[in-house]
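Margin note: ligand = flavin mononucleotide.
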Amino acid sequence: MKTLLVVHHTPSPFMQEMFEAVLSGASDPEIEGVEIVRRPALTVSPSDMLEADGYVLGSPANLGYVSGALKHAFDVCYYPILDSTRGRPFGLYLHGNQGTEGAERAVDAITGGLGWTKAAEYVIASGKPAKADLDACWELGATVAASLME
Ligand SMILES: Cc1cc2nc3c(=O)[nH]c(=O)nc-3n(C[C@H](O)[C@H](O)[C@H](O)COP(=O)(O)O)c2cc1C
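Resulting structure:
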């Protein structure tokens, strides 16, 4: 059994919609042998990261960067997982309308340092997520989860 870890900071109903769409895609019945584990970014531990085989990260754009919560997750986990998680697939969804490029750049830099592999296009939404945004979140979850199937 493989494990997909969803590390998310979900401070609002709109972001909850995106989170749930990602989970729904990741748990599609056609994807077999992949367990979904979800962890709020402020609670995720290096063990959670090490025990997973792939990752979906979810964050608002705050102050033109990823949320402090997601930054905290990597502040805590980066060195303990460095070199042990190289090559693992990941995906990202962001919510915000200004400065999402800064958040993307941050995730590119962090995941680049870890040697993770981008398994799907990033999903970026603002305001109330449209159906197309939620469909993209569903696809994101399904794509990263399916990439773990043996
Ligand atoms: C401290 C702080 C900084 C923020 N900075 C930004 C920002 O730079 N760009 C942006 O689009 N939204 C910013 N926001 C708004 C969040 O991104 C927004 O709350 C989140 O995307 C959820 O959106 P919603 O509350 O409309 O559902 C910020 C929120 C907080 C609390």
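The pocket of flavin mononucleotide is lined by residues 11-12, 14-15, 60-64, 95-99 (CB under 6 Å).
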